[in-house]
Input
Amino acid sequence: MASSFLSGFIAGRLQFQKGSSFSATVIRISKISVALGIAILYVSVVIYAGFEQEIQKRMFSVGGQVSLRQFSTGTLYEEVALSTNDPYLKTLRQLPEVAHVQSFAFKPVLVSNEKEVAGIVLKGINPDFNLAAFQGNVDRPLKHTPKEGEMWISQRLARTLELKRGSEVVLFFMQEPPRYRKMKVTEIYQTGLEDVDETIAFVDLDMIREINNWEPGKVGGFEVFVNNFQQFDYALDAIEKVIPYNMGTEPITLVQAQLFEWLDVIGRNVLVMFVLVAMVAGFNMAATLLIMVVERRKMVGVLKAMGADNGLIRQIFIRNGLRIMFQGMMWGNGIGLLLAFLQDQFELIPLDAENYYLSTVPIAWEWISIIGINLGVLFLSWMVILIPVRMVNRIQPAEAVK
Output
């Protein structure tokens, strides 16, 4: 107990000494470098978490994490009709991994106003569509899915076709016999996902049933939302065990593979940054303690001459190193928290939505990851600190006090 108090007292005196001591300058530089490294890691983690959260949120807003459709030799958007009364659907909805199941149907079509014609894909949706998830893509509250004669289009399609809310368009269905429908644009959305915004318009599923001559209760497929996307593979296995053999699953990780790969690249960059910062912080602390040991060589000799053992003296320098680390980490966390808070509240840094899918740098408060980073940096630095303090063992009192 006494030795612990003594080592702590001496470590404090070493750290807070005044004057022109070279080690005091080195300590200040060490604190600054640790603080900057932690702040950079802090901001990187919350930005990566923000990207992952926002992009996944947008992907899941237009459909579930798993699409179920019957195997077919037709095109991607020509589906085999499925019944909403099949027994497996009840079992599917009761799975603990499943949060929600909704029906849909696709239909390719030509859309025309008085000036332009474009090829798009209609996505028919029912009242079971997850409006709460889709709400973030529009600028006003949604009360219901499209009704008969109504259509939701993307902001990109609206610009291309020079449309706005209340505009009327004509849909041409290229089939035998050809059909057309007059529609009214009632909502304009924006997901930032290019393959969705360029092609998808939402309509009442009953209209697609009518165009396809399907019976009531028939749909093109089902979309499944899982409860925990972190355990998506387990949920997918459970879903595949329930559905009939002639149905296939389309996981969003495959449909949107490019986006998930992009997120993986960002995640790997953050991991590499963590390793580099931890190494720099560790070796910086090792160099600082090495300088302190060399500068305090005479003090070490005096302590040994007074009967202090190597363990006590090593503890003095280890405590000093950990204090420097703690103070640098506190400043780093404070700076990182301030920068992230300012970006989260005021969106100071904009982005090109065409390239980054978002109009501003996103922030998500991943406290577990932030705590893990601090503990990881502290542990690696502590391991490195043990190396230079071993130099204390080789200092001989007789030579040091000369």
Notes: The two ends are 32 Å apart (CA to CA). The mean pLDDT is 85. The first strand starts at residue 66 and ends at 70.
